[in-house]
From TrEMBL:
Keywords: Germination, Membrane, Transmembrane, Transmembrane helix, Transport. The keyword Transmembrane helix applies. The chain crosses the membrane at residues 12-33, 45-66, 78-100, 120-136, 148-165, 185-208, 220-253, 273-297, 309-326, 338-360. It is found in: Membrane. The lineage of its organism: Bacteria, Bacillati, Bacillota, Clostridia, Thermoanaerobacterales. It comes from Ammonifex degensii (strain DSM 10501 / KC4). Gene3D superfamilies: Amino acid/polyamine transporter I. Belongs to the amino acid-polyamine-organocation (APC) superfamily. Spore germination protein (SGP) (TC 2.A.3.9) family. It is a multi-pass membrane protein. This is Spore germination protein. It holds the Pfam family Spore_permease. One of its GO terms (cellular component) is membrane. GO terms for biological process: spore germination.
């Protein structure tokens, strides 16, 4: 059975969870909540926070029941060999599904906002090759680099947004609950789904050095992500109005373009800074879900290592990202209507089902052995699929 030998700290795991969600969430969430909830978009974020915390608790509790195993390894023990295999395959596909979705998001922004004449396949190929190289270096190296980037990312993120605070028109948030609670609830689906991506801890938990802090790590990550998305949504709606934000393809990008330094011309293109930060975040998100998918697939197949799969799978994901959507309009509609529900099915329903069944059976892992609540050992060798 394949094993990843790298070790990461709880702080690195938290930073990793923040990076992988924030990179894509800030791209589409402001526009989606503005479409669904209009001036009450900020309220949608508060409701999404509740859902995100629920997913963080469910996934962390499940990971802590089987601390040295990934979800692919213990699913057959929880649900039985057949259904465990089926659920394991769904997780494998889920990780790859998010990966090729990220590839297409990256390509669309680069060709739409920056280099319209460059074929989208060029950007997808570059991002994929960088991700393949990062995965080949291993999880520990990826997390260390991410930690450095995040130290720059978060302060710069809030500093740039603080510069547009003076332009916020608070009347853009009125009237409050004009159409009742329905629109804010609908608007909460997308950001809630993105916050639920912290469930990737199901694949990372076995490699966290202090596993007892996995729950705290996930909760902190959700709160940090909520704060980041909240200030972007408030900033976008407050400065441009919900009607305008709802029509924009990339509201966060447009928001950063409104920042100007009249006295320091060299700092007058804040969208370029945003782009550099965002590209780094997209690389880490693709790398994370690509890595999780490779590790999951190799464990599902019983391979000794995932490395021979890196480049062939990367090419397949790049092809899927190009074939799955016709244009940017398809991708935006997919991001608002399909993507949130599809990942909620995995992060909330399947993960919750595994936790519920494991709890009802009293099944957990102790010192590498699968035990029932009465201490009886589960038959079969741990970690086989």
């Amino acid at each position: 059975m394949v094993r990843e030998e790298g070790r990461i700290s709880a702080l690195q795991a938290c930073g990793y969870q923040v990076s992988i969600v924030l990179a894509t969430a800030i791209l589409f969430v402001p526009g989606i909540v503005a479409q669904k909830a209009r001036s009450d978009g900020w309220l949608s974020l508060l409701l999404a926070l509740i859902f995100g915390l629920i997913v963080a608790v469910i996934s962390s509790k499940l990971a802590l029941r089987f601390p040295s195993q990934t979800v692919i390894q213990y699913a057959p023990r929880v649900l039985g060999p057949f259904w465990g295999k089926i659920v394991g395959f769904i997780y494998v596909y889920y990780f790859f599904y998010v990966a090729y979705y990220v590839q297409r998001q990256f390509g669309e922004l680069m060709t739409t906002a920056y280099m319209q004449e460059t074929p989208i396949v060029v950007f997808i190929a570059i991002l994929t090759l960088l991700s393949c190289y990062a995965i080949y270096q291993g999880l520990e190296v990826i997390c260390r680099v991410n930690q450095i980037v995040l130290v720059i990312f978060i302060p710069a993120f809030f500093f740039l947004l603080a510069l547009i605070a003076k332009d916020i028109r608070w009347e853009n948030f009125l009237p409050f609950l004009e159409s009742g609670w329905g629109p804010p609830l609908l608007g909460a689906l997308a950001p809630g789904a993105w916050l639920g991506e912290v469930a990737v801890i199901l694949m990372l938990a076995p490699f966290v050095s202090d596993r007892r802090r996995v729950l705290r790590t996930s909760v902190v990550a959700v709160v940090v992500l909520f704060l980041c998305m909240f200030v972007v949504v408030v900033g976008a709606i407050g400065t441009m109005g919900a009607e305008v934000v709802a029509r924009l393809l990339f509201p966060a990008f447009s928001l950063y373009r409104r920042i100007h330094f009249a006295t320091i011309p060299v700092l007058d293109r804040q969208d370029a800074i945003f782009m550099m930060i965002w590209v780094a975040g997209m690389l880490f998100k693709l790398t994370t879900f690509f890595y999780a998918g490779l590790l999951a697939l190799s464990q599902w197949l019983g391979l000794k290592t995932y490395r021979p799969l890196i480049f062939p799978t990367g090419a397949l994901l790049a092809a899927l990202s190009l074939m799955s959507w016709h244009n940017i309009s398809d991708l935006v509609a997919f991001s608002a209507e399909v993507f949130p529900l599809s990942i909620d099915f995995v992060n909330f329903f399947l993960t919750g089902l595994l936790l519920l069944v494991a709890a009802c059976r009293g099944l957990r892992e102790v010192n590498g052995e699968f035990l029932y609540a009465d201490g009886e050992e589960v038959k079969g060798s741990p970690g086989t699929i």
